[in-house]
Write the structure tokens for this entry.
Amino acid sequence: MKIINIQSPEKKSFAGPLFTEKDVTIQTLLPESTEYDVNVVNFGKGVRNKFHTHECEQVLIITAGKGYVATETEKKVVNVGDVVLFEAGEKHWHGATEDSAFSHIYISRRGITCTIVE
């Protein structure tokens, strides 16, 4: 059994080509898991990722702030406590609103690639 507090893992820069700005950090919650990637991603105000897809489902659990989740056909505001499911292959993005930082836990199968889709 493994128990970890969401505040424990160090925040590390997660800036890269997937994001619109550099104010993004990641906290790895379960590095020992052989089946799942479970991480907290923290976005600065107005920061989001670009349209992308995953080879498997992706689950987001909103833990702080206010954010957006969007597909090609809709954009919705999400708040603490909301849980989002993106289907495998669904083109989407997510990130902070213009006036709020934003954090979510993301869960997906380990080793699955994320593909940026312009």
